[in-house]
Write a structure and sequence with these properties.
19% helix, 394 residues, two-stranded antiparallel ribbon, alpha+beta, globular, binds 2-acetamido-2-deoxy-beta-D-glucopyranose
């Protein structure tokens, strides 16, 4: 990924009213969350590579109605920091959040958006590096993709992006920007270096229909009708699929099946629960699914309802356990990626290999390949962070 033209409009640090968490919330938090805090502290120790050097990050959130928009208070400690900026529910306003990351899924530091230009995410390493959003316009390939909503998957709209995505179950399609991203995979351009298309099938929760999501980077590769069209010549003979830019698309379906056949299937817990922190139930922990890998995703957040002022805020935990099947194991992120912001929000994404390895966070974070990946990942990451720093100095 070469460099990078500075985008002057978004380069300036942006500032706005800060939103502090009331201390009563923090107190309530400590009483109801003691059990979980222990688990999380243990987990932080488990998933931190001994080589990683922890630094300080800003940890705050705010809602803004106009520029400049920023928050600069609170802190947390981790080897990586993040800033995220996305539209708020109220039109015309947006929300900025900053915090800490362990084992981030992004393979490169910097700011980017992968689906909507309104939703910017930055990852960086170094003390308080998440001060502001520094956006760089990257020179990347342009690819035409089909762009249809779920309610009209057969539409004829297209978009120009850097990669295409497709929900193979609903038929919804569109363009992706920034580093290609697929759930439970590392997010980086390397994701589509070795093949033109990558899919993941997820199932989680009780009797949930599997969700199949694919990303690809050739002309109209997310359009099933185009794929058929290109695979036949006028005489009806099947020939190599050729994209309009002249590059030959590798035959994909055959190798997909071979990889899928080689991978052992594991039995995993399949469960989807939302609960208040102190009423965690385990009703669906007996349900199972089978897949190449097991997954565990937990999101904890503080809910501010209408009654918040009167009864205090409530902490909600949403936990999903399930299975994934993949078309390629290259760049799958085993172990847990952990993201948190003060006491307000926390997210964990884990993939693991082994029977019932997703039954709890401890075993999910201890996945076999996670011992191998971090060192390579961190070396690459620090080289790239250094390059990014050079860009900042420029
Ligand atoms: C991309 O963004 C659109 C709205 O901008 C949203 O509806 C869609 O679910 C997003 N897709 C993914 C894969 O995140
Ligand atoms: C790529 O697509 C964008 C968005 O449509 C367009 O503005 C830009 O000119 C395109 N770049 C090239 C090199 O075709
Ligand atoms: C994965 O593939 C296996 C074998 O084809 C199938 O039994 C299982 O249901 C699939 N799991 C998911 C999550 O799609």
């Amino acid at each position: 990924m070469g460099i990078v033209i500075k985008d002057d409009d978004s380069h300036r640090p942006i500032k706005c009213r800060e939103m502090a968490i009331p201390s009563t919330v923090a107190q309530k938090w400590t009483t109801t969350m003691t059990k979980f805090a222990l688990i999380y502290v243990l987990l932080i120790n488990l998933i931190t590579s001994p080589l990683a050097m922890a630094g300080q990050c800003y940890s705050c959130a705010g809602t803004c109605h106009r520029e400049p928009c920023n928050c600069q208070m609170g802190s947390c400690e981790a080897d990586y920091c993040f800033i995220e900026r996305k539209p708020d529910e109220i039109p015309g306003s947006w929300r900025i959040t900053k915090g800490c990351l362990k084992r981030p899924s992004r393979t490169r530091s910097g700011c980017d958006f992968d689906n909507s230009s309104n939703h910017i995410q930055c990852v960086c390493a170094g003390d308080f590096c998440n001060e502001a959003i520094y956006m760089y316009t990257q020179i990347r390939r342009n690819v035409t993709c089909k762009m249809c909503p779920e309610r009209d998957p057969e539409c004829s709209d297209t978009c120009q992006g850097q990669w295409c995505h497709e929900d193979a179950v609903t038929g919804a399609t569109g363009c992706g920007y920034g580093p290609p991203s697929l759930p439970f995979f590392y997010k980086g351009p390397e994701l589509l270096y070795h093949r033109n298309k990558l899919c993941v099938t997820l199932s989680r929760g009780n009797n949930a229909k599997p969700w199949k999501y694919c990303i690809c980077n050739t002309h109209l590769c997310n359009d099933p009708t185009q794929r058929i069209h290109y695979a036949h010549d006028h005489g009806g003979n099947v020939r190599a699929a050729v994209d309009s830019d002249g590059s030959v698309t590798r035959s994909r379906s055959v190798s997909h099946n071979r990889i899928a056949d080689r991978l052992p299937l594991h039995k995993c817990v399949s469960c989807d629960t939302t609960s208040q922190a102190d009423t965690m139930t385990s009703a669906c922990k007996q349900n199972h699914c089978h897949g190449h890998f097991c997954t565990l995703a937990t999101k904890r957040f503080v809910k501010a309802g209408n009654t918040a002022m009167r009864y205090g805020l409530q902490s909600i935990i949403h936990e999903q356990q399930g299975c994934i099947n993949v078309t390629d194991t290259h760049k799958i992120q085993l172990g847990c990626s952990h993201k948190w912001m003060n006491n307000e929000e926390e997210e964990l994404f884990c993939a693991c290999s082994g029977a019932l390895c997703n039954s709890d966070l401890g075993s999910a974070s201890r996945s076999t390949a996670s011992r191998l990946l971090p060192n390579v990942f961190q070396t690459v990451f620090s080289i790239l962070s250094f390059r990014v720093l050079l860009n900042f100095a420029f």
